[in-house]
Amino acid sequence: MSLPLEGVKVIDLTSVMAGPYCAMVLGDLGADVIKIESFPDGDASRRFDPKVNDESYCFAVLNRNKRSVALDLKDPRGKEAFLKLAAGADIVMENFRPGVVKRLGIDYDSLARTNAGLVYASMSGFGQTGPYGKRGGYDIIAQGMSGIMMMTGYPGGRPAKVGIAMNDIASGVTALYGILGAYIGRLRSGKGQYLETSLLEAGLAWSIWEFGAWAGAGEIPTPTGTRHRRSAPYQAYRTQDGYATVGAGNEKLWQAFCTQVCDKPEWLADPRYARPGDRLEHADDLERDIEAVFATAPSAHWVRKMDAAGVPGGPVYSFEQTLADPQVAARKMVVEMDHPKIGRMKTLGLPIKSTGELTEIRKPAPLLGQHTAEVLGELGYGEADITAMLDGGAAYDDARGGAA
């Protein structure tokens, strides 16, 4: 058996987060991902701290299972090499500002003339069309404009950014399923296609419940802290030593929570908490009552009691505590690998487990231009031609030097 995308060639022109995340997963699925980078700087995230032996750890975690080819696409020889590479590619992906690939002559229409089966994906801040189509965009801009910041945080507080680069990752995941869908379509029809998504649209597409409430009743989602908008108790509650989450929104769980976890059967007769809607309406009172009980013992105590009662709940961890949790360890979500400069390093594990070969961490993130000569050789360039390109500034190879 082999990984599902083994033999699939991906040309990755993207940088920073959204595109590289998408390309990383394609590499995890077995694709040969060739990351095209400019030089001397390469992907902007190569400059991100922290660095170990002058290599960005963040870049190394995000760019596993890829090869790096450093080309000057404005140099005719660099562009020629790229066009040869793209002619044999299955997938090309880019996240330049809209219009850049057209000016460089490496847009979908240009490449599809010699590669009709090409799947070409673009990621941008706002999309390739519309009044904002030419704007650049970052995750925080998209979080603000997709309404997410105005529904995150606590009531009365300032708009809050989600703690991770949510719109970036949403865009990468959206592009990923678009690419896989288009590739499956190509397997059936032989025809490739162009697809594109944006940070704005991908994040907005995840606001399913909020959209339903707005479209159905004109409800504007506002910040609720850790509370659910439709269910209570469903939030994080303060304990003696931190916080614990509770998910006891239905009647069966609510009864178990009152009697077996909190030892407060009288709550079942309290008219404020009689029905789910009542508990939601009186969420402030409910929070005070639950926290009065939870304040008497540490989080671990309440988590054990909820587990015993069959009530979903858990501790609120710092990130370090998350990575040290035995469940995370058992699921192999932190693994180690060897990097050519960093040395032995940790990386996030594979979030999908399967009965067959599906995903695999096969190789570390590449050094800038580490595979330039190798890939040029695969394209049929002779040693003299490769040396001339390196010496002449059309390409760069980490091992052999050149114009960088």
UniProtKB/TrEMBL annotation:
Keywords, ordered alphabetically: Transferase
Molecular function in Gene Ontology: CoA-transferase activity
Domain of life of the organism encoding this protein: Bacteria
PANTHER family xrefs: BLL6097 PROTEIN, SUCCINATE--HYDROXYMETHYLGLUTARATE COA-TRANSFERASE
Name of the molecule in the record: CoA transferase
Source organism phylogeny: Bacteria, Pseudomonadati, Pseudomonadota, Betaproteobacteria, Burkholderiales
